[in-house]
Design goal:
Elements: E1 4-9, E2 14-22, E3 26-40, E4 43-50, E5 61-64, E6 68-73, H1 76-137
Antiparallel strand pairs: 1-2, 1-6, 2-3, 3-4, 3-5
Length: 138
């Protein structure tokens, strides 16, 4: 299993990802995921969501050390949770999100076409009125 690192940024964001390397200015991770805490009545849970959820490719991300408060490698159990979350996201979340975007895009395009048609009809009615008004003046 690859080394998995937890990164806390200055804005409070927490990220977990596969550690690749670090240099003087950056910590570079692969497949970064945002750590989100969900509270439900008496229980608290952690959900991991892709950091670059709308990106076509999973390219490594460099986090500037100037924006990092702390970073450390995670416990083996959390590392397994991270790997399972990646698989779950790939199988279910990402597929559903993309399908929902397709549906939303189709609805938006249909609505815009309908609006354009209504605007065209309004313009045509306006031209007819102006044309008829011109004819009656002659």
């Amino acid at each position: 299993m690859q080394d998995v690192i937890h990164i806390r940024l200055v804005d409070g964001t927490q990220i977990v990802g596969r550690y690749i390397e670090e240099n003087r200015n950056n910590i570079i991770v692969e497949m970064p995921m945002l750590i989100e805490t969900r509270l439900k009545r008496e229980n608290a849970g952690i959900i991991l969501n892709k950091y670059n959820g709308f990106s076509e490719e999973d390219t490594p991300v460099a986090f500037k050390k100037a924006h990092v408060i702390s970073h450390q490698f995670v416990h083996d159990e959390f590392s397994k949770f991270y790997e399972n979350s990646i698989r779950y996201n790939d199988l279910y979340v990402e597929t559903n999100t993309i399908e929902n975007m397709r549906r939303a895009n189709q609805l938006l395009q249909d609505a815009m076409m309908e609006t354009e048609l209504m605007n065209f009809e309004d313009s045509a009615d306006s031209l007819r009125i102006n044309h008829e008004g011109t004819d009656s003046l002659q």
